[in-house]
Amino acid sequence: MIGAPQNAALPGGAIIVNRVRGALPGCEPVCDAVESGHLSGGDVFPEDPISAGSRLLSTPGITLTPHLAGAGRQTATNAANILAEDVARPPRGEPLVHSV
């Protein structure tokens, strides 16, 4: 449903958020658009768990977060805290702790 033509129609710097499960939108057009600088990022998982060879793991500017729809409140809170702590590390010159 969303591919290269639809990405090109978005304003520069847009971020795609995938609100459904599965491969909508496809990750290849999103990776292309992020690499070209047209999109700022995307929230796209073609499969869960993501495969080790996925281009999403090697495209700069893509941030991957866990799927938490069925998680309890404490699990979601813990995941948010871990993510927030890790996102704050690079500006301080520190390496990421939780990365693939």
TrEMBL record:
It comes from the Bacteria. Gene3D superfamilies: NAD(P)-binding Rossmann-like Domain (3.40.50.720). Residues 1-69 form the D-isomer specific 2-hydroxyacid dehydrogenase NAD-binding domain. Pfam families: 2-Hacid_dh_C. Transmembrane segments: none annotated. This is D-isomer specific 2-hydroxyacid dehydrogenase NAD-binding domain-containing protein.
